[in-house]
Design brief:
The strands form 4 sheets. The protein has a two-stranded parallel ribbon. It has a two-stranded antiparallel sheet with strand order 2-3. It has 7 helices and 8 strands, in the order H-E-E-E-H-E-H-H-H-H-E-H-E-E-E. The chain is α+β, with helices and mostly antiparallel strands.
Amino acid sequence: SGLSAAYEAKKKNLSFLILDARARIGGRIYSKKLQNGLTIELGGEWLGQTHKEILAFCKKHQIKLEPHRYKNPRYILKNGQEFTGLAELFEKFEAVIEKVKVRKIPKKLDWYSYLEKKFTEEELQILNRIFGADFATHMRYVSALDAYKELITGGNNDHMDYHVKGGNTKIVETLLKHAGKKNLKLSQEVVAIDDDGPVHFDYKPSRIEDES
């Protein structure tokens, strides 16, 4: 978010300084290249087809994307056997979602409790591992109504449509390139903000180390 703000400020010829507590830039976007040449994401992974702004940014700056959609996922049980009823489970889930009557969902009922009425515990565990965020632990603490709205307003492929070829950190590097490296200070800690009159920032080197 800081780099995005700097990117916009640069376009308007505004002066700015980017301070980051870490020894690296990017925040939740963090691509790690392994010794075998494979790049893995330790933070944000995908770009969805509904993420218009970031897709336009990638197109403008020639950041190559690769499709990340899956049509026929497989699920392997702990004993190594494949769960053969996956297609049927998906169809059941879609049928449940289509029949949801928003007005009839109690506001105090959480999403997981609502689904427990429709699926067995084993089915929920499988859906939880495959769909991730839609069934993640935190979803147990929001209302079923909010979770349902989040589910039906997303992309057709659950926002897992694209991935940056070579790692999502390329987005971060491109933002910094246009914002200017001279305007960046890493390993910094904000110790005071004086907004009484002209805004003034005091900062000092941070003791926070890079996660790597």
